[in-house]
């Protein structure tokens, strides 16, 4: 199973794959954790917005924060080259021209 990941992503070693999984894990958890205080700071709460709109805005914030954190954490772990491609692919998917 991990061999498929390595081939698909062009990863050379098991250690590099481990670092990539760690970066994904840290980034996802941190983005979700940061979104709550960010929503509070921006005045976005269930009392101010319909619950569906609140969660839509919060998910958009998590996605934005995730992309920023992904680059920062990837840099710390020395995997910026891999994740830059990943973020660029996402940005092209949502309509940004890079």
Q: What features would you describe in this structure?
A:
With 98 residues, the chain is mostly helical. The chain has one domain (13-93). It is 79% helix and 0% strand. It is built from four helices and no strands. The chain has helices at residues 2-9, 14-42, 51-76, 80-93. α2 (14-42) packs across α3 (51-76) and α3 packs antiparallel against α4 (80-93). The termini are far apart.
Main β-sheet description: none
Oligomer: single chain
State mean pLDDT (0 to 100 scale): 88
Radius of gyration: 16 Å
Give the tally of structural domains: 1
H/E order of the elements?
HHHH
Tally of alpha and pi helices: 4
What is the tally of beta strands?
Answer: 0
Distance between the termini: 32 Å
Quickly give the structural class: mainly alpha
| Low-pLDDT windows of residues | none
* Helical content (DSSP H or I, runs of 4+): over 70%
What percentage of the residues does DSSP assign to strands (E)? under 5%
Coarse shape: elongated
Topology record:
Blueprint: H1 2-9, H2 14-42, H3 51-76, H4 80-93
Helix pairs in contact: 2-3, 3-4
Q: What are the salient characteristics of this protein?
A:
single chain; 0% strand; 98 residues; mainly alpha
Briefly say what this structure is:
By secondary structure, this protein is mainly alpha-helical.
